[in-house]
Model the fold of this input.
Amino acid sequence: MRRLAVLITLLTLGGCGSLNSGAEVMSAGIDAASPSPDGSAVQRGAAYAQANCASCHSIGRAGESRLAGAPPFRTLGLRYPIEDLAEAFAEGIVTAHPAMPEFVMSSEENSDLIAYLQSIQSPADH
Done:
């Protein structure tokens, strides 16, 4: 549980906001610029990550995070089973970092983001 708390802290360092360019999500091979309401969970998760996380985290399969200490999403599976993050997301992520807003997801957003995170981990990380 302590490792999960550390992961959540790392995930939430810095404020998350919208990304001006969809280049990072596009580098992940996912077109999330205008996902349809009936789009796949992975596409919706990519759009969610782009809108809420990309200003701090690298959300694609390549690139560095914009905020030092914010782990690239593609590396999360190296330390933690991605499925384990669903519980932390469901409970709401709150951090003491002043630039980070309170973070609460709907169950659909949670599922979509988990699907996206799983899709960008390298096969060796699963």
